[in-house]
Amino acid sequence: MKHTPLPTQISGARFLASRRAAMLADMPRVGKTGAAIIGSDLIVARKILVITTASGRAVWKRGFSDWSVFDRPIHIVTPKTVARVKPGHDGNLVAVVGWPSVSDPKVRAALLGFEWDLLIADEDHYAKNFDAKRTQAVYGTPDRDGVTIMNATSIAARCAVVWPLTGTPYPHDLSDGYPRLRALAPELLAADPSRAWPDVTVRGDFLHRYCIVKMKTLSRFNRIPVVIGGKNEDEFKARFGGFSLRRTQADVGIRPPSYGFMPLIVTDRELREAEGDGDRQAILEAARAGETKALDLHLGPLRRITGEIKARAVVEALKDEFACGLDKIVLAYWHKSVGAILKEGLAGFGVVGIDGSTPDQVRGASVAAFSQSDGPRVFLGQIDAAGEAIDLSAAAELWFVETVFSPKSMSQMSLRITNFSQARNAIVKVCTLEGSVDEAVQASLMRLWTTIRKVTE
């Protein structure tokens, strides 16, 4: 082991090692990877399967050499390399596979050919929906809305121990936790008359017990449930709290960011352009109801146009900020055109970044350059591409030039500027167009964040 573990990592490892199925839900940068690897040593797991993100594969490969006392052969599994995966001469094996690959027929068949001592499902929020093929591949397929789970050919069924890890266990709402609970801890879903807890084995019962649901009409014959908030949060926390362990950044000495807004003043013409021909009343109603899909539908291309207007205003605002002493900043965005405006407008300050097309080797070089005190002063992060497994704590300030309707993605991105070595108060600001419907959209997202914090902090 190359590193000395933190006390929270040791307690996290012991928590996992004492359970056949348990979730480590520590916030990002608290040390889940090291804790899980130490836990795998404590149970002397010989064959270990890790499911993670594309960028996380290299992190886990290095992690085992940094945190484990055992020398296990490590394989990065892809459809092209899966045929070469085999244990070492002593029977030890670590296979690391990306979430997109677990539903690939060739990869899934190969993984099902092993009896695994341990499955570590890293970033397990990728399995929040039973309708997704990757969730079915890992946890099985629900029958009759979850009355039973058909898991004979699920990856988890081939694993003696299963530990899901995620810093954002409920990316959108509390129902996101149902698949892992139904697959791994069905006993917790059974009724407990002594505490007046109803049976929530069936997904519909779980949904209506812990979520505020509004039925949305798609057509005369089609209505779907839309979650607009949470309820019975104290019961949820008491009922399922023993399945998971969560520590915040404050628990390990990392101060959480301070959150606020960065209002941007633009011209009346730009405001009219940002709102376009959109139905303002419908947008406001969807925002108040928390209907993120409806918001996306109503806003459509206006989201990109609004982002571009914000980007031009941010360029001008940052020129003043840098002149007043700001050293470095991370700018989060969504649309490529927004990133292009920021890159061109701030080129004089030095710009690096990561988007969905950035190769792995360039990702590391960009982060390394930004981390240098005399390096580029601006880091441009496309929200999903730069939201995990990178350290941007060389900056103490992050602005969301654009936002997304996923609280998970926003939270993950905002925590990139926090770390043990961050001596300054980290500040996260959401850029808004003063006097626009954008303000109502951000209030909608904040309501979802608030519900999730009630059961995770």
From TrEMBL:
PANTHER family: DNA ANNEALING HELICASE AND ENDONUCLEASE ZRANB3 FAMILY MEMBER, SWI_SNF-RELATED MATRIX-ASSOCIATED ACTIN-DEPENDENT REGULATOR OF CHROMATIN SUBFAMILY A-LIKE PROTEIN 1. Keywords: Hydrolase. InterPro entries: P-loop_NTPase, SNF2-like_sf. This is Superfamily II DNA or RNA helicase. GO terms for biological process: DNA repair; replication fork processing. One of its GO terms (molecular function) is hydrolase activity.
